[in-house]
Amino acid sequence: RTHFIPPWFVAITSRTARPTLQFSENQETSPARMDGSSAEVAKVKRAKTVLTVAAISGSLRRASANAGLIRAAAKMCEESIPGLQIDHVDISDLPLLNTDLEDVDGNAFPAAVEEFRDRVRGADCFLFASPEYNYSISGPLKNA
């Protein structure tokens, strides 16, 4: 069974080869053909989340176009792809790479780094939106 995924949606590094979206009932309705009726919307709400996407913006600005693209992608996916959850991971609190920030035993990094690591580990795949600087991604995204 195939599910509609918009062509702009690029997810990389999937842990599962072909994740499938499971419904709570045996349903034949494809999200790509939903007509917006209340029955169709109810089916989408009953969908079981099986794919988590960590979305990371390479820009730190609040009014960033890249962060806006991630918000738009999250909204579109919530409306059209049952079972897909986009977690917008904010990298603005991450410190610059500095191994001296580890504790004495080498076990823990600052809380912002640990939270980032946990959210990335919990994702099934990733969505990156970044400005282009000199044919590359932004510095904050490289730091993350």
Automatic annotation (TrEMBL):
Ranges where the NADPH-dependent FMN reductase-like domain occurs: 52-144
Pfam families, per database record: FMN_red
Top-level lineage group: Eukaryota
GO cellular component, one term: cytosol
Enzyme class: oxidoreductase
Listed GO MF terms: FMN binding; NAD(P)H dehydrogenase (quinone) activity
Cleaved signal peptide residues: none
Catalysis: reaction(s): a quinone + NADH + H(+) = a quinol + NAD(+); a quinone + NADPH + H(+) = a quinol + NADP(+)
InterPro entries linked to this entry: Flavoprotein-like_sf, FMN_Rdtase-like_dom, NAD(P)H-dep_reductase
EC number: 1.6.5.2
Protein's name according to its UniProt entry: NAD(P)H dehydrogenase (quinone)
Species this protein is from: Aegilops tauschii subsp. strangulata (Goatgrass)
